[in-house]
Amino acid sequence: MKEKKILNRQETDRVLQILADTYPDAGCALHFFSIYQLLTAVALSAQTTDKKVNQVTEELFRLCPTAAEMAEFDEEELQRILKPIGMYRSKAKNTIAMSRALMEKYGGQVPEDQKLLEELPGVGRKTANVVMSVGFGHPRIAVDTHVFRVSNRIGLVDEKDVLSTEKALMETIPREQWTVNHHRLIWHGRMICTARNPQCDTCPLTEICLKKL
Length: 213
What we know:
This protein has about 210 residues and is mostly helical. Helices cover about 55% and strands about 0% of the residues. The longest helix is centred in the middle third of the chain and has 19 residues, at about 90-105.
């Protein structure tokens, strides 16, 4: 018998309901007070944890709350602040370049446009998706390492890369639920369905999950 690789519609709906029941308060874990700060925090979160990003942005946003301050900030000092999150040299360079681009092109405001966001230094598709959804309220599914791992492991989709996973999830999940399920999948990946040693014995999805470990 051919191995089953993807859940059917009824099973998918059941997964989404269980995730809703398990993580009713799921949302963005990054700390920010403006869309500019959200954009900066998400860009800084590459290959690190939101917890670590929140630790460094507490100081960073006190010193540079807007693009105007960040555009003029000393790069070596920014490296010092960002050092705990890794890749701090490139992140410092991109953060200042991004802020300068916002000042030069948009008067310091973050554009409400996916394509324009992706043109900013250090901003990729995932970051732009998060800003469009969390910042501006547009339905999006931002696929990070958690969303990619969990959605393919469970069997919501069966894809080999991030972009294909995003497109498949957009077909699988109702549009009005894209953003909230992006957060729920992240939370599930952090708390139970971890990359190493997933807690299958306590997972509420065990009976449905295809367990692609």
